Amino acid sequence: MEPNRPRAREVGLTCGTIPPGQFNSITDVAGVRVGHDTVIKGQNVRTGITAIVPHEGNIFQEKVPGAIFVGNGFGKLVGLSQVNELGEIETPILLTNTLCVGRVADALVDYVLSLPGNEQVRSVNPVVAETNDGFLNDIRSKHVGKDQVMASLRSAATGLVNEGAIGAGTGTVALGFKGGIGTSSRVLPRHLGGCTVGVLVQTNYDGILTINGAPVGKELGRYFMKDLRAYPDEFRWTREYGSVVVVIATDACLDSRNLRRLAVRATLGLARTGSVSENGSGDYFIAFSTAKQARIEHASTAEREIGLVRNDAMSPLFLAAIEATEEAVYNALFRATTMRGDSDHVAEALPIERTINILRQYKAL
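^ thats the sequence. predicted structure below, dont judge the formating
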């Protein structure tokens, strides 16, 4: 184990031009909280859950504008159709593994129904997303359920967010190395609105790791379809599990239409890291706004229209989402530690020193 592995900026890696917030985290968006529960048992259980809570109130009673963009639909995201139909999110957002989505969604419904003020609620649209951690985790044993959901929600807090092989990122693999949870933020200058965009990623996807334009995965000899040259006539890519979930929060006053546009731009940040959005990868992008004047239940149409960010003012927010997504992925990889799991599989951590040397070689630091 390597408990003191650095974040990207701690080794001098700076992505883009917009400065991060205080914690360089999705929690730099005021009111947003993140919690984890990690499940490690014996030699083959490596999984968990991560909760993103948009604000401190009753989210069902004070819904937030939201949108979900599907980059590649090989996945199981509960709540997608209603979020995109109504443009609002009414529960915390929970991330877990593929086969535990149903158990987690059921527990999240119970949690929402139990909240004071929800005694008469008869319908809840839980938002639960997943990636497949079956390379390291005995996924069929389904070790994430109600206890883990409640633990992740109880632990949700502002401030620094634990990253790497934790929570929903415990058993994930990304770009040939140990993946995990990563987060980052950007704060626009005052003359561009002064808004904050924060991103959290659950990385479990494949590609050719690229960092600040440097072909790190290729230089390290570990990348998507590396064996294609050896088997040009016979090669078939058979790995049909993976996925990535990107959660984007902002305090900018956006409606669901522009939140979807913001979510789409996060795909560009993912592309910068070398993602190929393979056939078996469920690539989902969930965006919400915490702006009080934009909350569905507590703002009139006139109030929302007065405060909404105009279309022609969106471009700085787009760039913020791209940069924060890219850096969140790097943080997930830098912070994740080598892990051995189910069937004696091993996911090796990104080698920090070798990576730094490659970045220096390509003048990417």
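The chain is about 25% helix and 20% strand.
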